[in-house]
Specification:
The chain has helices at 44-56, 75-81, 86-105, 130-136, 168-175, 230-233; strands at 15-16, 33-35, 41-42, 62-63, 72-73, 107-109, 116-118, 126-128, 141-143, 178-179, 190-191, 193-195, 202-204, 212-214, 221-223. The chain is built from six helices and 15 strands.
Length: 261
């Protein structure tokens, strides 16, 4: 999205004299502040930018995401509090629909025909597009990861032979810093970003709460330290701030695939 003029709340909004908690780049927006339903404070411009960021990440819903807050804002609230323009509304609604389709059906757009394609074999990055195959008169397969026509042998689960085909999520898991848990006993060298063991989406822990976290996508609660589902982790030691029954799980080298029922 292009840079836009700053938006400001008028007297019809109930404003508060508090800091904008979503001004992550310290841009010091001029608008008065207002409180979202979860209690956190925004300006319309900072809220718009944050929600655009979520959409660019592939989200179809808007979760506050402040430390310890997993409240999901209804789109109607976002639309009102972000003072969305008609153009922004169209972008938000179209992108939400596309992202929801991808999440529910594991679909992406073919780089050849631009139509939505659903991957049947989640263990193979090479995907055949039936439309392009028919139009071109030859087998047309593309890489699910880099979205270019397939190069190299198959099946492959890590990358194709196109230059620059890399799994950004795995790179993030490999390079992220360690979390500094303030309240959990005996935890060292725990990565600050994990792939949810149920659905594979990347989640980050600030280190300021207990060791458990609820995934914003699949809504399953798991232990960030040992990567077990919370109910399994707590069977031996029910203390949310105590040590796990096993050691800190190492950095993940693969992304779990969500086996939806």
């Amino acid at each position: 999205m292009n840079s836009k003029p700053e938006k400001c709340y008028d007297s019809t909004f109930q404003c508060v004299d508090e800091e904008d908690q979503f001004d992550f780049l310290c841009e010091d927006f001029a608008s008065r502040r207002a409180r979202m339903s979860c209690g956190h404070v925004v300006t319309p411009t900072s809220l718009t930018k944050y929600c655009e960021y979520l959409l660019e990440k592939g989200e179809s819903t808007f979760v506050c995401g402040q430390p310890g807050c997993t409240v999901e804002w209804p789109y109607e609230e976002v639309r009102k509090m972000a003072l969305l323009t008609p153009e922004e509304k169209e972008y938000f609604e179209n992108t939400m629909a596309v992202n929801a389709l991808k999440a529910c059906f594991d679909s992406k757009f073919c780089p050849g025909c631009k139509y939505s394609v659903t991957r049947k074999d989640v263990s193979n990055l090479s995907v055949r597009c039936q439309i392009c195959t028919a139009v071109k008169g030859r087998t047309f397969e593309f890489c699910w990861q880099c979205l270019r026509e397939w190069k190299g042998p198959q099946p492959r689960i890590d990358r194709c032979d196109n230059e620059g085909c890399t799994n950004d999520a795995l790179k993030t898991l490999r390079d992220c810093p360690y979390a500094k848990f303030e309240n959990v006993k005996g935890v060292t060298q725990c990565p600050s970003i994990r792939a949810c063991p149920t659905c594979g989406i990347l989640v980050e822990h600030t280190g300021k709460q207990c060791k458990n976290i609820t995934c914003r996508q699949c809504k399953v609660e798991f232990c960030f330290v040992c990567l077990k589902i919370t109910t399994e982790c707590r069977k031996v030691n029910p203390d949310y701030f105590g040590p796990c029954s096993t050691d800190v799980a190492p950095r993940q080298t693969s992304i779990p695939i969500w086996q939806r029922n």
